[in-house]
Design a protein that fits this description.
Layout lengths: L13 E7 L8 E7 L17 H14 L2 E7 L1 H7 L1 H15 L6 E5 L11 E4 L7 H24 L5 H4 L5 H10 L20
Parallel strand pairs: 1-4, 4-5
Antiparallel strand pairs: 1-2, 2-3
Helix pairs in contact: 1-4, 2-3
Length: about 200
């Protein structure tokens, strides 16, 4: 039996929501929304950060097969620079919710803040991806879809090592930025090089 809770409100259709890529220097922030059947069995379902790449990939397939509804959405670097990363994360979640083919009655949001979506009530849950199945499922979809996207972008910009670092601020990624500067996929409002001051 999964240690994750199946729902917060058993009488409502709930969608779990999470994002990936908030702390990256490059690429979009990606969000997912997932509605799971209350009695669904997905062995090994957990917070995506606790899983191996191979396990996440296997679980992604099961989630996409067994979910009542699921959707993934992105907010790209240019929008992030205009909105700021926190608001961009919320907008990505809104887009994922909007893309669901079934409208949820309640939203479970990973984290402690959210901008209300339409008239759907929500509950923010700190570390919710390790507490509720639908949020864990959303975390896996957001992470795997984003990793896949960054691997495709790597083919055009191999110098930054995105196939490995996925756009996160690793030593190798920052070193490449110091050598050759940013490209179109970088978030210009972020501190990209060691010499650049924080903008916010």
């Amino acid at each position: 039996m999964s240690r994750l809770a199946a729902y917060l409100n058993k009488d409502l259709t709930e969608a779990g929501c999470d994002e990936a890529g908030r702390g990256c220097l490059a690429g979009p922030v990606v969000a997912a929304a997932v509605i799971l059947p209350p009695r669904v069995r997905i062995p090994g379902l957990d917070d995506s950060k606790k899983l191996t790449h191979e396990r996440r990939a296997a679980l992604r397939t099961l989630i996409e097969e067994k979910a009542i509804a699921w959707a993934v959405a992105v907010v790209g670097p240019e929008e992030i620079d205009v909105l700021n990363i926190l608001r961009a994360s919320f907008i990505a979640m809104h887009r994922a919710i909007d893309a669901l083919h079934q409208r949820p009655q309640h939203l479970l949001i990973d984290g402690n803040r959210f901008i209300t979506y339409a008239d759907i009530p929500h509950t923010c849950l700190v570390k919710g991806d390790g507490r509720f199945r639908s949020i864990a499922a959303a975390s896996i979809l957001a992470k795997t879809h984003r990793d896949e996207l960054m691997e495709r972008l790597h083919n055009d910009h191999p110098e930054y090592g995105w196939a490995i670092n996925k756009g996160y601020p690793t030593v190798d990624h920052r070193s490449a930025l110091d050598r050759i500067g940013p490209c179109v996929h970088h978030r210009k409002s972020f501190r990209l090089s060691y010499a650049q001051p924080e903008l916010f």
